[in-house]
Amino acid sequence: MKKFVFIFVFFLSTIMAHSNEIKIYYAEYEPFIYRDMYGELRGFDYDIISSFCTKYKLDCDFIQTTFPGLLDAVKHEKCDIAVGSIYVTEERKKFGLFTIPYLHSGLVAVIPYNKNYSFEDLFKLRVGVKRKATGHKYIVEQMDKYNDLNVNIFDSTLDSFKALEYGYIDWLINDYYNSLNLIYTKFRGKYKILSIKKRPLFLAESDIAYLLPKKNSALQKMLNQHIVELKKSNKLNELVNKWFYITKPITLQDYLTYIIIFTVITVSLIFLTIIFLLSLRSNRRLRDYNSFLSAVINIPSFVVFTINKNGNIIFWNKGAELITGIEKPKHLKEIFDEYEKIREKCMIEKTKIENFITTIKSNKTKTLLLDIYPLNSSNSQCVFFGQDLTELLDTINSRILYENLFYAIIENSPNGIILIDNELVFINKKSKIIFKINDSNIYLSNLNENILDYLNKFKKMNEEEFIFYDIRDVAEGYIFDLYIKKIITAEKVYYLIILIDNTEKIKQQKIIQEIQRDEIISNIVTSVVHDINNILSVIVNYTTLLKLDSSLNEKNKNILDKILNITEESSNYLKSLLNLSNIGNETKVVFIDNFLRSKEEFFRQLLGSEIKFEMILEGEGVTLEINDNKLTQTLLNLLLNAKDAVMGNDGKVVLKKSVENNNLIIEVIDNGQGIPKEIKDKIFEPFFTTKKEKGTGIGLYAVKIFVDELNGKIEVDSEPGKYTKFKITIPINHKKSN
Predict the structure, then answer these.
(1) Cα-to-chain-centroid distance, residue 687
(2) What are phi and psi of 621, to 5 degrees?
């Protein structure tokens, strides 16, 4: 009986242990999930899944595969969860269970930063796409529609980005969030995402979710609950900002990594310079220098070796022997996991390759930084110079390394660095540009006053380190996160200040806010037009009934006709407001002089009898292919602004048309109160108004949108207390902008 109980308890404990084991298959896709240079898993998806595993105390085993392998694992129930920016499609729903979506994304077009393609241009150009990705399927479908489409397929997203960099393709298709990350981290200033009116152009949209085998419905519910909790607590938005929307601040660890790389490059350059100088010496002393060269090559901490075209190792120095523990390997594959990649770099790329980081096979895993140089020798194809980074990484926190390397490397930091040593201040190259200072060493009294204020605030806080966020008063045109750290040594106290440039991050946030504003405007305009047009319809109906009364005299009938005309003009004006929602964009050929004459009575009624209205038509007659409702809206917005400016001031408003240098000029001039200089640059911004509750702030914004569509320009000239003049210039042979 005891034996039976023991066996039962043993099997029960085994089953319970296995119930907590979760197999998570993933396909590397930065920044969703990937391994960094140290082999650690990171990314947006990894943060969500690892927090899920921690919350439910699950033993999660992450297993890497390809994207097709990911879908295969779900189909054949080899995994519990599939991770890696997986789009929700009807086809995938047939063999798996999707969680609730945690991101809405889509395919976008990535183009060179200096290009301005339209959507129609794309399908006349060379396009790149990752093999078997969602974008691959999309472009195959487009090939039936665009016969001349030139498609180039790549094994990885990074390969397609590099092909665009070297000009092998003109644009590429990729996921929106992955494209944002690559543009921020690896190709800053080189590419942009094709947008229409500041909105990313999605070629195809879809939700992103996690995929599970159909048997795992219970696990699906747990993961759904976790995603909902992340959304409610705003932690999901924090992860989105962390991985996609902002330029990540450089940490102290990043700086130290740069220090290591810069040191290795410097040593490499010194070493190569020595070799070059030796080669220039006369043959008379060649024997002596050969001895010296042999000693240099065999430096114990430095790897030097050469290979032939087959990957066989021809030369292997003492340093390589000591670092790897291998006397002399015969082939690259004996010591490098990435031997094929290394051999290809040697054979295919005929120029030198610097800072290639890889790991080597040894009793202990080591990290090696390689510089690869091609050779013209018939025997050797490439020479490799390498530095062992393992010891440097192990001792990175040592005080000696920090103090010796800080001053040498921090000079080239992309952010402003300030080190305060009592009354002496060291500033790096970026700081000199920010503060327009020529010297690297200045006195504390000469430091920027605002920086000194923040330093004094920090000292009063009695903290070891602190960050002041979104600082705008330090330097014009910059927005910083101001990081201050107190460094205490045996001899003295230092203060380290890092100015982390967030200007680009703020610009991106502003773009997102503008998109949100546009959506609000669209909803407001659509609602207002619908409601007021219903009211105008009632006026039209009652006026039409009154006209049927036979007892009306001719004068009253004329009044009713004017009411109908004004109501119709008002209805057309309201409909034209839908321009802000991209509704009603039809165009036709309009004779401008006839158009303005036909609206004169309407404009006069709009302004009222107390305001003198004058219309002046100068120059030759002009025809434009234009949306006449939008033109009416534009003139009404300007006239209504003029009416508000001159009320009670013996007001006068002039609408003037003229022709200059093949441009149509329309001016609206009033003798009102004018526009203060301090707000003159803001009047075309959405929601900006000086009329408080009477104004919406979308009138002049709508005018600017319409003029921009015609490739025209609008200018304002005003003198407070005297006049205001709005001048619209439209090319007569204009082409409508996209």
Answers:
(1) 25
(2) -70, 140
